[in-house]
Design a protein that fits this description.
Structural class: mainly alpha
Oligomer: single chain
Radius of gyration: 16 Å
Helix content: over 70%
Shape: globular
Length: 112
């Protein structure tokens, strides 16, 4: 029974993520690509998917999104209550824009 609940929760997460990603891409493609950590090709693929395709993909039992802050020391530094919030946001933007997965040519599914 627990596996069924987990699969439904994963499907709900995937559906919410993919619908949000499509909405973000429609509103501001460049900003969405940066925030989602995806390439132009992945953005084209996501934006071109029909609702039926999104639902079909979302019902897989694999989480489609992933945390992009794999560098634990960098993450801790960002979370240490900097008094200058705008500087902290700029630092986070720089870290995420310089995604090492993107530079290494990793598959988009690993970054999305």
């Amino acid at each position: 029974m627990d596996a069924l609940v987990a699969n439904k929760e994963i499907a709900d997460l995937n559906l919410s993520y993919m619908l949000l990603a499509q909405k973000m891409l429609r509103e501001d493609r460049a900003a969405a690509m940066l925030r989602l950590g995806i390439s132009a090709a992945m953005a084209d693929l996501l934006i071109g998917m029909s609702l039926a395709e999104v639902i079909k993909l979302a019902t897989s039992n694999f989480v489609l999104c992933a945390f992009r802050l794999d560098d634990l020391p960098a993450f801790r530094t960002l979370m240490q209550g900097s008094k200058e919030r705008s500087l902290q946001q700029a630092h986070l933007s720089i870290l995420l824009a310089g995604d090492p997965l993107a530079a290494a040519g990793a598959p988009e599914a690993a970054r999305a």
